[in-house]
Amino acid sequence: MKKTGLFKIIMFILLGMVVATWIFSASYFNEGNLAELGMYNIGFFDFFSLIFGSFEFAYFLQIFILLLSIGALYGVLGKTGKYRAWIEKIANYFKGVEFIFLLIVAFLIAVLTSVFDYGYLILLFFPLLVSTILAMGYDKVTALVTTVGAVLIGTIGNIVGNATSGVVADIIGIEATSGFYYKLGLLILSLIPLVLYLSKAKKTKKTTKALEEEDMFIGEKEPNKYSIASIIVIFSLLFVLLIIGCTAWNNSFKIDIFSKLHENVTTWSPKLPYIHITTDGIETGSEKVAIFTKLFGTVSAFGEWRYAEMSMICLIAAVVLGLLYRVKGIFAAMADGAKKMLKPAFLVMMAYTVVYFAGNQMIFPTIAKLILSISGKFSVILSSIVLALGSVLHVDILYVANYVVPQLAAYDVDKSLVALLTQSIYGVTMFVAPTSAFLVFGLSYLNVPYKEWIKKTWKLVVTLLAVVLIILLIAKFA
What we know:
single chain, mainly alpha, two-stranded antiparallel ribbon, two-stranded antiparallel sheet, 4 strands, about 5% strand, globular
C-alpha cells in the first residue's frame, strides 16, 4: 500500500512553525493597526500541548465526527448486497459516454459549492461518486479532480455561498454579492481547464480484485432479494435534507420562512395536565408546555443545520438501511465503516492542527507585514503571496477571513477586490496545499501519494492561477 506522505509533511510544517516563533515576533492586527506582542517562543512540551489542544477544539471535532458518521453509513451500505449493484448499474448506463458523467458530477459539485457552499457536508456523497468513477475505469486522480477539484473550483468562483463569500463579506463590511459578475466569470473560466483535464482522462479495464483494493467502500457483491429502490430513496432524502437543512436561506437569500416556521413550532405551547413527583410530594395541575421542544430538545431551524445535525442524520440513515436490508450486525457494520474512515478523518484533524498553531503563535501578521511592505501600496501579486501563505497556515476560509483578510483590507483599495482575491487565491492554493482539508481527505481516502497528485495536476493548477490573476487584474483596473 502506497503512503500519501501527508502526515510527515504536516509534521514538518508544524515543526517549521515552531522554529519560526524563535525568529518572528507575534503581533495582532486590529482596527487598521498592527500591534506588537513580543516573542511567543514554542517549547518542546508546548508543541505537544498545542497538538492535543487542537483535538479538543469543538469545530474540529464536529468535522471529525461527521467523517466517521459518513463512514458508518457506507459501512452499512457495503453490507446490503445492493449498493455495489447500484454503482455498477450507473457505470453501465454511462458506458461509452463516461466523460458525460464526469462533466455532470463536476458541474453539479462546482455550482452547489459556488451558490450554497455546504463545506464538508458535500463529502456525504463523495464515496458514492468516487466508487462510480472508479468502476467506470478511471484512475484515482481523475476521481479526485472530478470531486475535490470541483469543490475547489466552486470556492474559486464562489458567488454567494454563506461559508465563503458571506464570511469574507462580513469581515470587510460589504455585501456577499459584491463583484457578482467577476465571481461568475471566475466560476465559468475555471471550469474550462477542469473540463479539458477530464477530457484527457483515460480509462482502463479493472479486475474485481483491483477495484476492491483501490476502493474501500465498494461493498460486497452478494445476491440480495431486496430492491435497490430503498438505497435510492435514502440518498434522495439525504440530498433533500442537505438542500433544505443546510442552505443558509436567511443569510444568503433573505428567505426566512424556515426560521419563522421553526419559531412557531418550537413555541407552540398547548395547555396540558401534569403530574410532578417532588421531594414535597405529588403535584398536579395544568400548564402551557412547548411540547415539541420538550420532546425533541434543541433543534436548529432548517437553514441552520451543519455538521452535528447531518452526522446524526447519517447515523439514522445507516440504521434504517440496515433494518430495511436485514443486515446482520448493523452496529458492527457501522463501526467497521467508521474504522475505515478513521485515517482520512485523523489526517484532516492534523491539517486543522496547523491553524490551531497559527492562531496561538500569532506570527503570521508579522510575516505578512514584511511581504506587503515591499510595496508601499496595494499589490495584487504581493497580496496573493500573503493569501497563499495564509491559506496554507490557516487551512479553513473561516480563519483566513478572520486572520488574513483584515490586514489586506486595511489598504486603500476596493473591498470587493479584496473579497475576490481572497476566495480565488484560497481556492487555487487548496489545490496543492498539504494542509488543504479537502485535498488531505481525498488523498488519504484513496491512498494517493501527495507527490503523485502534484505531478499529475500541476499544469491544471498553473492554468487556474493564470485565470485567477487575469480576472483580478481586470477587476483592479476596470
